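Researcher: I'm preparing a figure for a lab meeting and need a structural model of a single chain. I don't have an experimental structure, so a prediction will have to do for now. The sequence is pasted below. Please return the structure as tokens so I can convert it later.
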Amino acid sequence: MVKDSIANLITSLKNASNAGHESVTAPFSNLNLAILELLKKEGYVGEIVKKGKKTIKTIEVSLVSEAGKAKIQGVKRLSTFSKRVYQGAAEIRPVKNGFGVSVISTPKGLLTDKEAKKSRVGGELLFKIW
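Model: Understood. Here is the structure written out token by token.
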């Protein structure tokens, strides 16, 4: 059975945000933690707390809302196990005319579309969030 942890994470963030929840819990992995740190830097999520010991670890994430409206309106997973999507630095375009962010896995680590374009580095396009 193949599990897509990135798709599970971003879908749970979107669903909890649309349902009006204050926080959401996700399974812990270093990739999930790196994605959440990047989203925290961009202002989509609030505080990130690691919970649990040894084998059962989770991450509790508080969601951000502005004027009673959730900050996360939608997400789209672009690169999957069966279809990898890569973009060079020249091919990177803004999401929703600059109101969204795409997350790219590059040789320099996880970067947003703006950071990757500024650094002139491309990579695997993981997902878009707005």
